[in-house]
Design brief:
about 325 residues, alpha+beta, 2 domains, 4-stranded antiparallel sheet, elongated
Length: about 325
């Protein structure tokens, strides 16, 4: 579909040959777009632009696992803030509405909109204006703020504590056992996505959903996954080191409710970090909600740094 109004054209890119056009607007994900098109995480029909002549003034891109027909994320949304056109209305909101209507099948909610922002974005007028302008446009297209997250990074050379012996670690080979532990961790979760799932699903079904939609999709070795237990074998928690296709990550770390408050999170996180650090890599990444203060504090105690924040908005 191509839409025109007030000398503006809204359309998807024709193919990889138009990536140079699409990347004229800056964003941290620009360098990944060619690879994503090549491996199927994106397709030309998922990358939309608003043009004024041959000038790109807004763009949006969707992302999904290879083979999926419906995208999982809306993770690129940019506006040329120097472009002025009083009669054009809200350019960003119109692009979002048009692209979503064409890309997302009837009966499906639009995917989350996610935006990486500087860790101190509220403290600087320029970055705050940029972030809030995109949030306003998304709100005009029907989205609402869902959660703000910290993006954390462990960097090579950062010390990793040695095991204390308080906990023993074994491979998480039994899917049923891991899902059972995930089900227990759902109790009292501070994670916004988990809390949202629990408004509609039982803890067990929420855990199965997270396993199937996230953990099962990682192609990195499951031999990395660990269950933490007391010396008598009683499980305390677990950690899921993985690689998401872009970076090594701590995908999930949890402590069972009965064992919270004993400092076990530090040892479980250290075990996951040791497994990935042994691969001689420059960094490991992880994310947690701003409101999940205990988890964020554990990462910071372990020497991880907040290198970005992430704004998530939804249409639900």
């Amino acid at each position: 579909m191509t839409a025109q109004r007030h000398d503006l054209t809204i359309r998807p890119i024709a193919g990889p040959e138009e990536l140079d056009l699409f990347t004229r607007l800056p964003y941290v994900l620009n360098a990944e777009l060619a690879g994503d098109l090549g491996d199927g995480h994106r397709r030309p029909g998922w990358l939309w632009v608003t043009l004024h002549g041959d000038r790109i003034i807004a763009r949006v891109a969707f992302w999904g696992p290879p083979g999926d027909t419906v995208p999982q994320l809306l993770d690129v949304f940019d506006i040329d803030d120097d472009f002025t056109c009083p009669q054009c209305g809200d350019i960003g909101a119109r692009l979002l509405r048009t692209a979503i209507a064409e890309v997302i099948p009837a009966g499906h909610d639009p995917p989350e909109y996610t935006r990486f922002v500087p860790p101190d974005w509220r403290d600087h007028p320029a970055s705050r204006q940029l972030v809030e302008a995109r949030m306003r446009a998304a709100e005009q297209a029907g989205a609402r703020l869902f959660v703000e997250r910290l993006r954390l990074e462990w960097r090579a050379g950062t010390p990793v504590p040695a095991p204390t012996g308080r906990l023993l670690f074994r491979r998480a080979d039994d899917q049923g056992e891991l899902v059972g532990l995930m089900t227990q961790v759902m109790a009292g979760t501070l994670d916004a996505h988990g809390r949202e799932d629990l408004t509609r699903l039982s803890p067990r079904r929420a855990a199965v959903k997270q396993y199937d939609s996230e953990l099962a999709r990682y192609t990195s070795p499951r031999e990395w996954w660990r269950i933490a237990a007391l010396p008598d074998g009683d499980p305390v928690g677990f950690v899921i080191p993985a690689h998401n296709g872009y970076n090594p990550i701590i995908a999930y770390v949890g402590v069972l409710p009965a064992h919270r408050g004993n400092g076990y999170i530090d040892e479980i996180l250290a075990e996951g970090t040791r497994i990935l650090a042994a691969l001689d890599i420059p960094r490991i990444r992880a994310s947690t909600d701003v409101g999940n203060v205990p988890m964020a504090s554990a990462f910071l105690r372990a020497g991880w740094v907040v290198f970005e924040r992430e704004i998530k908005m939804t249409w639900r």
